[in-house]
Amino acid sequence: WAPVREDGSFDFEAFEQLLTPRTKIVAITQMSNVLGTVTPIKEIARAAHAVGAKLVVDGCQSAVHMPVDVRDLDVDFFVVTGHKLYGPTGIGILYGKLDLLAQMPPYEGGGEMIREVSEDRVTYATPPHRFEAGTPPIVQAIGLGAALDYMNSLGRERIEAHERELSAYAHEVLGAMNSLRIIGTAAGKGAIISFEMKNAHPHDVATVLDRYGVAVRAGTHCAQPLLARYETTATCRASLALYNTRADVDRLAAALLKAQDLFA
């Protein structure tokens, strides 16, 4: 596992020590969905390529919060999901370097992914078609395209700046609450705040917040080994977005005070 420090920052030096000529694939997130930590993908790519490894980056969390240039980062593969980009569920995007995609066989068969078929042989279409067998998710693709157009119309840099200011305010407000422990405070992190409340399970806290009209995610966030690193089993996670305001943060804080009084 790629190590993180106590504040959630990525330990690049320790990560480099894990790489050997036997390393074939480095799979890592660009932004942690638990800590909000932004990993130095460009440097990670250089280190991975230096030992002959390919780099697969999970950009599901980062793509909605920050501008991403896959060519500048020099990643081999980059994946995102539609629903975290304000689009539909059931659709995502896989970017891959063309020469690598051309070397890869398809993982399923169906219409539109072949070039020629005979009784004893088959040749496949060029990428990306060889990986898109059968009828695609047409409605979802249209919806995702509209969502991306909407984000681009606002400006990725504007979205990032808005969320950065809002995240700083949220850390200031929630950090002043003695009953909370914020997990992940690395500099330059994304607009994600994971926390736990003394004497209360995150599911119970989330239930109280819901009663006051505040939606958070509670649980393991599909990252149990990471939570074990911080000696906990679950957290609440508040994810700030382009439509949130300081008033939303204040409402979260007020609801947390209600929960604090209930579980004290």
List keywords for this structure.
4-stranded mixed beta sheet; 264 residues; Aspartate Aminotransferase, domain 1; single chain; globular; 2 domains; Aspartate Aminotransferase, domain 2; 10 strands; alpha+beta
Description:
The protein is of the alpha+beta class and 264 residues long. It has two domains: 12-154, 3-Layer(aba) Sandwich (Aspartate Aminotransferase, domain 2); 156-263, Aspartate Aminotransferase, domain 1 (Alpha-Beta Complex). The chain is 39% helix and 17% strand. It contains ten helices and ten strands. The strands form three sheets. The protein has a four-stranded mixed β-sheet with strand order 1-2-3-4. The protein has a four-stranded antiparallel β-sheet with strand order 7-8-10-9, with helices on one face. Helix 2 links the parallel strand 1 and strand 2 (54-58). The model has no long low-confidence stretch (mean pLDDT 97).
